[in-house]
Structure formats: C-alpha cells, structure tokens
C-alpha cells in the first residue's frame, strides 16, 4: 500500500506502550477522579479506557493480527481520541494537550510527509475544538497558536533528524557491504545474496555464477607497483559492471584478485557476458602494465547446480580448469549428472 511503515516492530511497540499507558491514565483521571459526573459520561470513559488497554495488549503481543490499514490510520485515530476525551472532560489545560505529541511523533517517525502534515492539521483542529469551547476567546487563540506552532516545529525537527539518520545508515550499510577499492560488493554481501538468488532461480529464471581471476596479478604488483595493481582491479570491476548491461546482477570482489558475478542469465548469455567483459578490459587505456587477462569459470542454476554451495564449487572447478588450460580463457561447468539410482 502507499503508506507502508518504515519499521513495523517499532511502530507496534510505540502504539502498544501508548495504549497501555493511556488506558489506565484515562481510567484514573476520567473515571475514578470524576465519579460524580453524569453516569453515561463515566461509563463511556470507562469503556474507552478498557478498549485502549486491550488494543495496547494486542499491539504488544500480536501486532500481526491488526489490519494493515490500522497502522497508517493510527495517528488520526490517536489524535481523534485525544480530542474527544478533552472535549468530554472539558479540559483545555496544557497537560492533556501534551498527549497530542504521541500521534505526531508516531507519524513523524514511521510514516510519510503527507500523513505527518495531515496529522498536524488534525491536532490543530482538535485543540481548537477544545480551546474555543472552554477558554476565553483571547486565551483560546493564544493557546491554539502555541500548540499549532509547537507541533509543527516538532514535526519538522523529528523528520529532519529521521532523514539524516537514514542517510547515515545508508552510508554505513554501503561501507559494510562494499569493497572500498573497486566499489564492488564484498564477500559478506556476496554470501548473503547468493543464497537468496539461488533460492529464487529456476528454469524460467536461471542464475549464472561467473568466477574471475586476474591472471598473473602478483607480477603486475611486483613489476609496476601496487598503485598500478589497484588500477587494474578497478578496471576489471568497471568492465564487469558494464558488461552486465541491463541484466540483474551483482559484481563482488571476494579478495585479492578474485571477483565473482551473479548474473540473471542462461549458459549462452553468461558466455556472452564474459566475452563483453574481456572486450571492455582489453579496450581499457591508462594501464602501464597493459590490460590484464582473465581466467573465468561459469556455472548456472539449474543446469550445473541446485544449491548455493554446489554452485560455488562447480564454478570454482571450472575456473581452475581455465587456469590449468593456460589462463586467459573461460570454461563452463560440467552439466549436472543424473541422480543416483535408488533401491
């Protein structure tokens, strides 16, 4: 849906804690402390307190049972309940108005800007309904302006902090899953992705694993220096990304001069990818050592393997055959053999 939560677990806890606190608070202040009020009013407040407490328990223990629409509507429901309770108790003092902070903070933390804006508008209208009924005109106007401005500024600050936190988290996640030299994914990201990619691959959506070694990379480092070696690695990583074109892919540096590419491709398309990658490396300029050659092993799910571990094993075996065959070439994994006969 259009208004998905940023953090379902956090949102459920926020709603639960509010309801579990608001239910008893409303019961004490609206029922026990006002037993002399008209009976229908006291009964209504008591039932509201019970409902709030029960909803809080559900959100704490079984949040998945709540309708999906409940979560984006929660700030409006919360602000509406607060306004109704303030009107029912004829209380326009500052204390009850502070409860408006909860639906505002909930929206600012977990929902989008449109809902945040609408929440501020509803809070402003709800407070106006209370203030202009139970306060003198001048004081009501001042309180209404103060609450509206305070809620608006709170929303601006919280959203700004949230977005800054999102940017910082994005940077940290990128640093944790990428290779700083080449910009490719690192081993950690590759290990996480290959299991998922193999699980969803099939005859109609094959997955190729292409293992690449830069031939004689130690010689490049020893002869031309590590700066040239680093440039060669960046050149290879760029070529692998470019050769993937529009196919779904992941380029990863597994360590040293070893790269891996997860590619949405059948065997023929995977071979075509390796040809394009070689051509792009060969066309690279600015390398004192000259373009490096590549040894490549290819394996495809489901043609050569069915699991992530098996796919890596047969792709590695194909890579070793390419290196043993003289380097600078590509080898395809052997087709998966028939299943052993069972008794």
Automatic annotation (TrEMBL):
**Which NCBIfam families does the record cross-reference, listed alphabetically?**
GGDEF
Q: Which Gene3D superfamilies match?
A: 3.30.70.270
The record's keywords, sorted A to Z, are: Membrane, Transmembrane, Transmembrane helix
According to the record, the segments passing through the membrane are 12-36, 42-60, 69-88, 141-161
Short name of any one Pfam family annotated for the protein: GGDEF
Which CDD domains did the record assign?
GGDEF
Q: What are its GO cellular component terms?
A: plasma membrane
Keyword Transmembrane in record: yes
The protein here is known as: Diguanylate cyclase (GGDEF)-like protein
Top-level taxonomy: Bacteria, Bacillati, Actinomycetota, Actinomycetes, Micromonosporales
Sorted alphabetically, which PROSITE patterns does this protein's record hold? GGDEF (PS50887)
Q: Name one GO biological process term.
A: negative regulation of bacterial-type flagellum-dependent cell motility
